[in-house]
Amino acid sequence: MTLSIHSDAHYMKEALKQAQLAFEAGEVPVGAVIVADNRIIARAHNQTEQLTDVTAHAEMQAITSAANFLNGKYLTGCTLYVTLEPCIMCAGALVWSKLDRIVFAASDAHRGYQKAGISLHPKTTSHGGVLEYEAKALLDAFFAKKRA
Fold first, then answer.
1. Average pLDDT over all residues of the chain
2. Which of 8, 21, 130, 147 has the fewest CB atoms found within 10 Å of its own CB?
3. Tens digit of pLDDT for each residue in 44-82?
4. Active site (annotated) includes residue 132
5. Which residues of 86-97 are buried (b: 16+ CB within 10 A; e: fewer)?
């Protein structure tokens, strides 16, 4: 199956590539990309271990990179693709960034913003489940390896 270059699945595959980099680095495999005008302007993955920084989640890294690219703090007109539903910390940052859309793969029943009842920016829409199986498989493999 060929994916449209501008589809949610296409961009989520790019986020999954970032999650794979995190996996290979011993980080929880979460990856993110931010898209503006059908162009990826930021790529990131979890780096909490490498940077010894609990805030170095993929989303936080991507927000900073995209803001630097755009030379401004607001990400209006942008979409975040992330392989795991954002946590409450990241959701707070996403509110302030004023993204248009958030698309995530796997839900996080334990630490996700939806479970916590966090509201996104009123102009931000969100959609989950895009390539959920692939994202969950990578997360499951990571945690199985950690337990072994």
1. 95
2. 147
3. 999 999 999 999 999 999 999 999 999 999 999 999 999
4. no
5. bbebbbebbbeb
CB atoms within 10 A of CB 54: 8
CA proximity to 34, closest of 74, 1, 92: 74
| pLDDT at position 1 over 80 | no
Tell me the per-residue pLDDT of 78-94, one tens digit each, with 9 for 90 and over: 999 999 999 999 999 99
Does residue 146 have a pLDDT over 90?
no
Q: Which residue in 14, 49, 59, 85 is the catalytic one?
A: 59
SS (H, E, C) 23-65: HHCCCCCCEEEEEECCEEEEEEECCCCCCCCCCCCHHHHHHHH
Q: How far apart are CA 130 and CA 57, in angstroms?
A: 20
In the numeric block, the tokens 């995530």 are attached to 104
How deeply is 4 buried, as exposed, middle or buried, from its count of CB atoms within 10 A (0-12, 13-18, 19+)?
A: exposed
The Cα–Cα gap between 23 and 27 comes to 5
